[in-house]
Amino acid sequence: MTFLLFYTVAATAIALLAGRPHWLTYYRLASAGVETQAVVTQTNCADHSTVSYRFSIGGQEISGSGAAGYGTPPCPALKPGDRVRVAHLPSAPETNLPGDPRERLANETIGIALAALFLPLVLLLILFLFLRRRQK
Hints:
Largest sheet: 5 strands, antiparallel
Number of domains: 1
Low-confidence stretches: none
Number of helices: 2
Number of strands: 5
Structural class: alpha+beta
Strand content: 25-35%
């Protein structure tokens, strides 16, 4: 029973702590985001394939940046002036990302799930080995 309780608490804590910042943004963009076209202003492929862009909403110029891929061409294929699709929140267009937020959400969810499922097992194994060693 102690094992199951520890595992459940650890898995929940890891899922909440590890995934909260990005997952919530991806979820909001996937569920309520609107797609538009943006113009690439700069690329920095050495920094996590980062692409910077700008787009207009209601006469307001919005700048953003994010990792290429996820529905946009790979970073080395992009150059300033190219068009990429961007998802943004209509109520807060400064919350935006290039590509398809559903792809990002799926990727983030899988990563969080794997960490939440396996990290507690590793922690339990370490704890078990430590306690076993102390008993000797």
